[in-house]
């Protein structure tokens, strides 16, 4: 517990806590829309954009926001292909990420940082970016969730009532891309994706209401982050693999526990 109280790691701790709260909530919505794989493609595209921005000397927030816009536009073109389209988006982002890394001065080290998740080196900029994206997301979450879930389970409602559904679908896509961009810059690519996918997957079988699903996913995300933070510091390990391992273990235990209880 001493690591959690060390002033040297206070900003990284707060940054990760914010990300580990926001990303599972985002993941619950992506699961409900059956678009969780899209998160991996979007994360790769935004990471590539941030790396290219760093190579050109652009601020992280600007390159992350630009990458989010590019990812949303690309997603519109591949959505009709379903999971195959999201896989194509991931391949394109992955290729761009490592080609930029191979052809820029700081690219390789930044690419490794995005992959491995250098949470202990993040500063106030990442925390401010996550708060700037996360607070509007939390405020809009009830409004967005109501409309997105209605569109998922009653797809004909919007068309029958002449509702401008494109507004909330596009808003959600943009918010999701921005959160993934800033989450990737703070926690690393795979750690962010794991926080999007695994908490919601692990708790959906236990809960019977949307509010409890959101609350439980957030608790799993935050607890896994705190455990990974302490373990990686104590044993001097790269953060992202530890985060993914801890989260995966928690998810398997939760799903396995549910299977045993309901045999």
Automatic annotation (TrEMBL):
Localization terms from the record: Cell membrane; Membrane
GO BP terms in the entry: response to zinc ion; transmembrane transport
Major location (coarse): membrane
InterPro entries: ABC_BtuC-like, ABC_TroCD
UniProt xrefs under PANTHER family: ABC-TRANSPORTER METAL-BINDING PROTEIN (PTHR30477), METAL ABC TRANSPORTER PERMEASE (PTHR30477:SF19)
Name of this protein: Zinc transport system permease protein
Family according to the record: Belongs to the ABC-3 integral membrane protein family.
GO CC terms, sorted: ATP-binding cassette (ABC) transporter complex
Positions of transmembrane segments: 12-32, 52-74, 86-106, 126-145, 189-207, 214-235, 241-261
Bilayer topology term: Multi-pass membrane protein
Keyword line: Membrane, Transmembrane, Transmembrane helix, Transport
Endpoints of the signal sequence: none
Source domain of life: Bacteria
Organism: Fluviicoccus keumensis
């Amino acid at each position: 517990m001493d690591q959690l109280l060390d002033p040297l790691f206070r900003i990284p701790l707060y940054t990760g806590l914010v990300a580990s709260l926001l990303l599972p909530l985002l993941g619950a919505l992506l699961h409900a829309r059956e678009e969780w794989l899209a998160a991996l493609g979007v994360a790769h595209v935004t990471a590539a954009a941030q790396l290219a921005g760093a190579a050109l000397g652009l601020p992280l927030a600007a390159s992350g926001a630009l990458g989010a816009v590019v990812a949303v536009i690309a997603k519109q073109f591949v959505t009709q292909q379903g999971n195959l389209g999201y896989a194509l988006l991931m391949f394109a982002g992955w290729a761009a990420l490592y080609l930029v890394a191979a052809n820029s001065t700081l690219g390789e080290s930044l690419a490794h940082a995005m992959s491995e998740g250098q949470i202990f080196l993040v500063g106030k900029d990442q925390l401010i970016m996550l708060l700037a994206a996360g607070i509007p997301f939390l405020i809009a979450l009830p409004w967005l969730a109501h409309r997105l879930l209605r569109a998922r389970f009653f797809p004909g409602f919007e068309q029958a009532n002449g509702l401008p559904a494109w507004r909330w679908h596009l808003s959600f896509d943009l918010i999701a891309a921005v959160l993934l961009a800033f989450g990737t810059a703070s926690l690393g690519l795979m750690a962010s994706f794991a926080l999007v996918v695994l908490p919601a997957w692990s708790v959906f079988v236990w809960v019977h209401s949307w509010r409890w699903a959101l609350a439980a996913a957030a608790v799993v995300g935050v607890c896994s982050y705190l455990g990974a933070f302490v373990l990686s510091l104590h044993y001097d390990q790269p953060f992202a693999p530890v985060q993914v391992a801890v989260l995966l273990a928690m998810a398997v235990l939760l799903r396995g526990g549910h299977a045993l209880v309901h045999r």
